[in-house]
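User: Hey, my collaborator sent me this sequence without any context and asked if I could get a structure. I don't really work with proteins. Can you help?
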Amino acid sequence: MNNNKRIDNATKKMADYVKNKGIKISAISSGTGISYGKLSRSFKENRPLTVDEFLLICVFIDLDPNKFKSA
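Assistant: No problem. I've predicted the 3D structure and written it out in structure-token form, which is a compact way to encode the shape of the chain:
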């Protein structure tokens, strides 16, 4: 159960980062191959990103995944 909470927290942090940087979901979808629908649900409805999706997004936006580590 603790892992799900971390994933949800990471998804929320990623969603906030993407929104604050003005990165379009459609651009992430095109650049990662993750469907727009999945990304939209993750960023707007708190569908947890899978680890693979999270890492693909980090690579696409050129961001170290450790930025999203909990303190």
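In plain terms: The mean pLDDT is 87. You can pass these tokens on to your collaborator as they are.
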